[in-house]
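Re: Re: token formats

Sure, here are both.
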Amino acid sequence: MRLLAALLVLCLLLDGTLCVRVPVNIPPSVSVGDRNPSLRTAVFALGSFWRAEAVFGCLQGVERTTAGYAGGTKARPEFRSLGDHAEAVQ
């Protein structure tokens, strides 16, 4: 039982801390017209966009991630009232 409790505490402590990206220099914001033409955009709708954003942000080749709501008809979706939107990572 103590081993199970210790593993649970360890998992909770490590949640979201397994990947840390530290850029040497942070590039200025890139306007749409200045983007590298070889870059592509993908949107993934998952359970928790904050955790997914952290995971995708650690992948090699990913330049930027943004968490938000995708699809749906509500003008301003919020956490408490998503309507028909899905939590997503771009």
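Second one below.
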Amino acid sequence: MGNTLNRFIFNNPVEGCYEKFRLDFIFVETECGDRIAAHFINRKAPLTILFCHGNGENIYMLYDYFCEASKIWNVNVFLYDYPGYGESTGTPNEMSMYQSGRAVYDYMVNVLNIKAESIVLYGKSIGSCAAIDIAIVRKVKGIILQSALMSLLNICFKTRFILPFDSFCNIKKSLYEKCKLKVHPYWVVGGKHNDIELIENKKFNDSIKSFLKFLRNV
């Protein structure tokens, strides 16, 4: 049951659905021995986004977008793949996803000497779970959540109750309440789970830039 559920949740893109090309990969080892593929888009900017991607994406698919976005937003971007995705080894599941996020964060701080106070987490879809996990256990400058999940059961049954057998439970972590400084959520009318940045591209980019400017000034 667990393996079937993981295959449903982690919709790892198969080769042929995306184009492979030459990239300078960084490999980071997790506590359970998975080798996590990562790539650093370094623009020598004051803030660095650590991006936790959705369940149907990988670095190859995200690279062009974030090369352009990093210029528009004036940030560095650190991309990484969950276990089993792209060039990463291992099997994707909730715990291995959390372990990979923590390992990548620690690599950024301890090896690349990126200051914790300059790291902005960005979690999209299921990546919101990875981003929130990092924010709970590590120090960061801020966090962006796009199409975030409440929990797995909420997706399936629209329930707001927390049940013992639920998973990916962002709802019980109360991250918003714990934030020292909060900003009003950006809502895209007519937007769906995976197209928010496409429907209102300029407004979306302006909102991200505004939030990053806010972080630079606090």
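The chain has a mean pLDDT of 85. The first helix runs from residue 2 to 9.
- S.
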